[in-house]
Specification:
Length: 343
């Protein structure tokens, strides 16, 4: 069976582009908000491992293909653990590298099944950040809320949430709201695995759970505390966007190279997608400016970033064949599990 790479090996310019992936995977340009594996004591799922045999079976790999890809699977698991431990803000998730590596050995039908299986796996494993909230901290822990829910052990010096002066009752209420959020996401993951909801339903459900958590925060915190939280959120998003803009070009090269490898892009498609993604930079810079001059709230900034990502994805999709577009849709849903990762 010939993989995507071997089918395109006759085109020297494309071969050069595909070769870029090896260098680009070393860049790890900042492109994602801080996120992490689910904190102990509460989360979307306990699906912390995915058997390579199970994934191979779901993708319909031959024994030869499974053996060839086993090292890449191991590298993904190892690198993602390290990536998450660093806060997830050092580049795009390593799962994309794994899928890109797989493209040289499997056909597009297998790739579609593998990407779908990986999406369900990641949906059950990662923490869905709540607005990358400094109140909760990396991995969903905030002042007075350790992974086991005990008082005081979760606070770290310099954590903005530690300045809010939360009362014991507020801490209890926030813990309860957080557990409700994760319980809701857990149920959505179970439904996604069972096939009773679509990926769009899952994304909408998570967004709804985030909105409900935000409403809870507004009712728990005083007006002054909520204003302080908004300031801390703004500072964190500004820091992220500053890194993202500074390293945009490197991240662009890496992203297009990954898409090239997975979707088997033509020269014209790769050039067009590069232009589309490059055109998303000025709107991102405008969001950063709006945050810096206080004309945008953190929520408004998040909404605009989401729209920029949606518009960019739609423009990219329009350049693809129907077969490529179907696989791109799965990749888009996968990327949404890592908020802040943008085309």
């Amino acid at each position: 069976m010939r993989g995507f790479e071997s089918r395109a090996s006759g085109t020297s310019s494309r071969a050069a582009r595909v070769g870029v992936i090896a260098a680009c995977t070393l860049v790890f340009a900042a492109g994602c908000f801080e996120s992490s594996t689910q904190p102990a004591g509460g989360g979307a799922s306990n699906m912390t491992t995915l058997s390579w045999n199970d994934l191979s079976a779901q993708a319909g790999l031959s024994a030869e293909q499974a053996a060839a890809l086993a090292p890449a699977h191991g590298a993904w698991q190892r690198d993602e653990a390290s990536w998450s431990a660093r806060g997830g803000d050092s580049g795009e998730p390593p799962v994309l590298d794994f899928l890109a590596a797989s493209a040289a050995f499997i056909d597009r039908g297998q790739m579609g099944r593998m990407a779908a299986a990986v999406h369900v796996y990641e949906a059950g494993r990662i923490s869905i950040p709540v607005l990358d909230d400094p109140l909760l901290g990396p991995g969903g822990r905030g002042p007075g809320m350790s992974g086991h829910g005990g008082p005081g052990r979760g606070h770290r010096p310099g954590d903005p949430g530690g300045e809010l002066g939360l009362t014991p009752e507020q801490l209890r209420q926030i813990r309860a709201a957080r557990q409700t959020f994760f319980a809701t996401v857990h149920e959505l993951v179970q439904q996604l695995r069972a096939g009773t909801i679509t990926r769009d339903d899952f994304d909408a459900g998570v967004e709804g759970a985030q909105g409900a958590f935000e409403t809870s925060l507004q009712s728990i915190l005083t007006a002054e505390q909520y204003a302080q939280l908004q300031t801390a959120r703004r500072d964190r998003i500004v820091a992220h966007l500053t890194r993202r803009v500074a390293e945009f070009d490197a991240n662009l090269a890496r992203h297009v190279a990954v898409l090239d490898r997975i979707l088997d892009l033509s020269d014209a498609q790769a050039a067009g997608i590069t232009t589309i993604v490059q055109n998303s930079k000025p709107p991102v810079e405008a969001v950063l400016t709006g945050l810096q001059d206080n004309t945008l709230t953190p929520q408004a900034a998040q909404a605009q970033l989401k729209q920029i990502a949606a518009d960019t994805a739609a423009a990219i999709r329009a350049t693809l064949t129907p077969e490529q577009a179907a696989l791109f849709d799965t990749l888009t849903h996968l990327r949404r599990l890592f908020p802040g990762c943008r085309p």
